[in-house]
Amino acid sequence: MSRTVRRVADMLAAGETVFSFEFFPPKTEKGWEKLFRTIGDELLPLEPAYVSVTYGAGGSTREQTHHLVTRIQEEFGLTVVAHLTCVGSSRDEIDAILAEYDRAGVHNILALRGDPPTKPELRTALADRLGPDGHGSPDFPYAEDLIDHIRTAYPHFSIGAAAFPEGHPATPNRLAEIRHTGAKVAAGADYLVTQLFFDNRDYFDYVDRLALAGIQVPVVPGIMPITSAGGMEKMADLAAGARFPAPLLRALSRVRDDDGVRRVGTHWATAQVAELLNADVPGVHLYTLNNSSATMQICRNLGLDSYRLS
């Protein structure tokens, strides 16, 4: 089957229900080869509309991200969305990265402020390159500054931005948080992708609040199935403020091992995706953690043989 690299903004404008997967750059050569086997043998047949590749805190995986993005697009012909954070990055560095992507035909960017690195040595190294609040950078204090720069310099790019149905941990004022999201859209974001959540009511309420604020771009829900007890703890750290509904916790309390956790977590995520599809969401973004099993099981549970729906 031939594949055409496309802009995510065009897919969404055409009314397609886009399913997408997210990967991160592996740390070892063995991990790289495993990931590419997973993509080619197991996930590619599901025909995702696009895949995205994350960017480490403080740009710590910058080169690996670029390598993974270009390799996936070249080898598999998939549309790839490259994460790009502005934390600790100068205008010249951002321009160099964008120019590389443009030359490689990668025209989809998820523009993020990003989190500063947690390792003390990296934080020290970036101390004079962070914004006034310890995030962003002097050239790009906030995500909207990065988005505005990309939109001006590369108007043909499709730009996505992050959204937080349960609120951003750094912005407890939920009214201000909506205004910040509106600023990203006003700067040129074509669509939003949400942080993970486990109660669809949070997503639906968030979309309604955006609409009341006049923010009308597509909001793609992000879903991450729970596959182990340890993974659940990492999720709680990764998405600070993530709410685990009592019914989900009750179901998890009845299982004895990680196999049971995986079954419950996959069932819960399947029910979330089914309800979201029934509500005609613009798409579903699955955080795979570089593992195909839960993603494939959700697909089978829903009776889907293709992730590109229309």
Provide key terms for this protein.
310 residues; alpha/beta; TIM Barrel; eight-stranded parallel β-barrel; 12 helices; globular
Helix/strand layout:
Layout: H1 8-13, E1 17-23, H2 29-43, E2 50-53, H3 62-76, E3 80-85, H4 91-104, E4 108-112, H5 120-125, H6 143-153, E5 158-163, H7 174-187, E6 191-196, H8 200-212, E7 219-223, H9 229-238, H10 246-253, H11 258-278, E8 283-287, H12 293-302, E9 308-309
Parallel strand pairs: 1-2, 1-8, 2-3, 3-4, 4-5, 5-6, 6-7, 7-8
Antiparallel strand pairs: 1-9
Helix pairs in contact: 6-7, 11-12
Overview in brief:
Helices cover 46% and strands 15% of the residues. Strand 5, helix 7 and strand 6 form a beta-alpha-beta unit.
Count of the separate structural domains: 1
Q: Strand portion, in percent?
A: 5-15%
The largest pleated sheet is described as:
8 strands, parallel, barrel
Total helices: the number is 12
Tell me, briefly, the overall form. Answer: globular
Please characterize this protein's 3D structure.
The protein is of the alpha/beta class. The protein has one domain: Alpha-Beta Barrel (TIM Barrel), CATH 3.20.20. It is built from twelve helices and nine strands. The protein has an eight-stranded parallel β-barrel with strand order 1-2-3-4-5-6-7-8, surrounded by four helices. α6 (143-153) runs parallel beside α7 and α11 packs across α12 (293-302). It is globular and about 50 Å long. The model has no long low-confidence stretch (mean pLDDT 88).
